[in-house]
Amino acid sequence: MENTAYDFGLVGLGVMGRNFILNVADHDYKAFGYDLDPEKVSALIEEGGDKARVNASGDISVFVNALSLPRKIMLLVPAGKIVDSVIESLLPYLSPDDIIIDGGNSFFTDTDRREAYLQSKGIHFFGAGVSGGAEGARKGPSIMPGGSREAYKEVQPIFEAVAAKFNNEPCVAYMGPKSAGNYVKMVHNGIEYGLMQLTSEFYDLLQKGGQLNNNELHKVYTEWNKGDLQSFLVEISAKIFEKKDDLGQGQLVDKILDKAKQKGTGKWTSQNAMDIGIPIPTIDIAVSMREISALKQERVLASKKYDRGTMELEKKQILIKKAEKAMFFAFIITYAQGMHQLRAASSEYGYELRLASIARIWRAGCIIRAALLEDIAQVFEKDKDLANLLLAPLFVEKIKDSVGAARELVTYAAENGIPMPGLFNSLSYFDAYTSERLPLNLIQAQRDYFGSHTYERTDRAGIFHTDWS
């Protein structure tokens, strides 16, 4: 097989990998896939239809030698040790200046380690976050590449061709050096956790507080998706409510067990936010709620021991109107927390992130795409040094218009025992962030009392300690 035959190589021909490589081939680039599973190799060849356009092999030497120089090889395999294993299997066949791209959800420090390791061997390596699921991989994902700018330039035409388009602009942009791409994708997933938690909470509120059935919920979420809440997650929620159960009566959503799983990116976002000192409580509680959901047997037992009393029902239309505003408020808070973390990480790790650019490439193709991102992009374009979304005049007005509904529903949910921690935490974050004075002076006094940790004063400069006894 000639060395110049194929423009792009991909390792890992599962659903995501197969869809991505077919997307590449659809845009007039010759693509070659590799997988140890012969069935996956055969499936790609069959679906590709033309081996001159898209081909595959289970032989790694055949795969590598099929690619033009410098080789551009993307990995879409599970994060962790498998990535390292694939890299080691490729190395004996690579040439100087070949490029390996990790398209999985790798932890950002692993990307930094791999880049340094491969640089010592003359191979370029960078991480590229890919969002949009299987459908996005096939029809156009949002792509977040970071690492060597020179290496990215070699792949840039391919990525811009296959990425989702928003107003004809490709939803891909160079994020920054080192592991910037994987880091941005990690925070993207953290925001995703928060938004998913919120959409589920308001579903619960409308069901319990307004007694809306699935058909009514379908109509409500469909209408919401035409306004301020327009987003992928609201859109698919509307579709989920009307899906019939193929194995029984009624809608499928009612038959799905209320135990949510996770792959770790939300947890990584929370852990790293604590490491760099940035509060993201809406995202934090979204991770915790998945962990609480896993305690199904304990929850069932506990529910029998505590009486919530009689549910005070609200008029449907009043509840729907308040819920729309309150969810919009919480959506803004979730994005604000995520963007705040990105800003801090950019400084901490030297990523040189452009928040306006990040918001733009999230406008289409990815799971957290929403109409709100257009405003977020414009705000950060206007003020590149904006510390927090909540300080932008445009968002001050949006918050003022929606925070009242959030307060009313937090009160209603608390009084009626409806768990809405995503909304609760969003409101608490807002109230704390907008408080000129917090009671943490007492905490500083306590710390100095028991541990001589010192404190600062409001009336004079310096560090002080008191003998409290």
Q: How would you explain this protein's 3D organization?
A:
By secondary structure, the protein is an alpha/beta fold. The protein folds into three domains: 171 residues, Rossmann fold (3-Layer(aba) Sandwich); 249 residues, N-(1-d-carboxylethyl)-l-norvaline Dehydrogenase, domain 2; 29 residues, 6-Phosphogluconate Dehydrogenase, domain 3 (Single alpha-helices involved in coiled-coils or other helix-helix interfaces). Helix content is 55%, strand content 8%. It contains 19 helices and nine strands. A seven-stranded mixed β-sheet has the order 3-2-1-4-5-6-7, sandwiched between helices. Strands 8-9 form a two-stranded antiparallel sheet. Helix 8 packs across helix 12. The longest helix has 34 residues. The protein starts with 7 loop residues before the first strand and ends in an 18-residue tail after the last helix. The model has no long low-confidence stretch (mean pLDDT 95).
CATH architecture of the largest domain: Orthogonal Bundle
Largest sheet: 7 strands, mixed
Net shape = globular
CATH superfamily of the largest domain: N-(1-d-carboxylethyl)-l-norvaline Dehydrogenase, domain 2
* Strand order in the sheet with the most strands: 3-2-1-4-5-6-7
Tally the beta strands.
9
- Please give the count of helices: 19
The level 1 CATH classification of the largest domain is: Mainly Alpha
The helicity comes to 55-70%
Structural class, from helix and strand content?
alpha/beta
Terminal Cα separation, in Å?
Answer: 84 Å
Let me know the average pLDDT: 95
CATH topology of the largest domain: N-(1-d-carboxylethyl)-l-norvaline Dehydrogenase, domain 2
Query: What is the N-to-C succession of helices and strands?
Result: EHEHEHEHEHEHEHEEHHHHHHHHHHHH
Low-confidence stretches: none
| Percent of residues in β-strands | 5-15%
Whole-angstrom Rg: 25 Å
Total tally of structural domains: 3
